[in-house]
Amino acid sequence: MRQEIITQNKLVIKIGSSSITHENGLIDLWKMESLVRQIANIHNSGKKIIVVSSGAIPAGMGKMHLSERPKTIPEKQAAAAVGQSTLMHMYEKFFSEYSITVAQVLLTKEDMYEETRREHCTNALNTLTERNIIPIINENDVVAIDEIKVGDNDTLSAEVCKMISFECLIILSDINGVYDKDPRQNANAIQISEINNVKELDSIDAGDSNSSVGTGGMITKFNAARLLAPSKINMLIVNSQVDHILDRSLDGEDLGTFFHFSNSY
Ligand SMILES: Nc1ncnc2c1ncn2[C@@H]1O[C@H](COP(=O)(O)OP(=O)(O)O)[C@@H](O)[C@H]1O
Ligand SMILES: N[C@@H](CCC(=O)OP(=O)(O)O)C(=O)O
């Protein structure tokens, strides 16, 4: 079942904040460089890639020397504004080493759910990928206040994957995959290799994030899975810190948790 990923050529890769930042929010250059190199290599192999990257608020937090994640809306907006440009600057720098052009795409909830805007957005993303440019998407946190926010990039990346009919969403996280309960709270938690039906999610204890930079934990990853299942789109959650994680996952190695939805639902 897992082998199906080998033949999938249209991938959305979602990068969680912890996969590219230090706990203090500043960009972790080794982590980002390693992920960019792997993504560039997959891109060179001919697959279509869209990146959804978190990290603007932590990066802004780091650059503004804030000791903790901002709580008020204006502070979050300010941190996102500072951090987003830092994030893109670093992606530009690393991808340009492999002669790959990237494009910043900032989305709001209306772009996902309002028909005309959704269509415009789909056209823009298709044009970029057809021209071999890698779109790097984030929520537009500077203008999206709580009531009009998607709120987390697990959900956003699933919506993007559906919108452009890509085949698989790969979520790069700080954990090896899904466990039957949060392994950071339960030492005896057992990892799950494959989920074949969305109903299986109901019996798993999905908790919130435990890190200073993450949003939503496993709760929002399960939301993403529930969005993808009816469209028969697969999903994979893997630990971004495992050596050569993307290459190995795309070779069909049994890493992380594979949500095999293409034949189910
Ligand atoms: N059942 C579960 N299996 C695995 N991780 C879980 C589970 N429930 C909660 N979590 C938490 O979800 C976290 C990953 O989500 P998050 O903190 O948002 O990080 P990221 O932004 O890197 O995806 C894990 O570090 C873990 O603490
Ligand atoms: N849009 C926010 C990211 C929100 C989010 O979902 O974060 P994460 O749980 O680290 O993927 C930012 O750029 O900081």
Describe it:
By secondary structure, the protein is α/β, with parallel strands linked by helices. The chain has one domain: Acetylglutamate kinase-like (Carbamate kinase). The chain is 37% helix and 17% strand. It has 8 helices and 10 strands. It has an 8-stranded mixed sheet, with helices on both faces. A two-stranded antiparallel sheet has the order 6-7. α1 links the parallel β1 (10-15) and β2. The site of the ligand N[C@@H](CCC(=O)OP(=O)(O)O)C(=O)O has 16 residues, from α2 and β4.
What's the short version?
The chain has 265 residues and is an alpha/beta fold. It contains eight helices and ten strands. Helices cover 37% and strands 17% of the residues.
Strand order of the largest sheet: 3-4-2-1-5-9-10-8
What share of residues are in beta strands?
A: 15-25%
Nearest-integer average pLDDT: 95
Structural class: alpha/beta
Over the alpha carbons, how many angstroms does the gyration radius reach?
17 Å
Bound molecules: adenosine-5'-diphosphate, ligand VHF
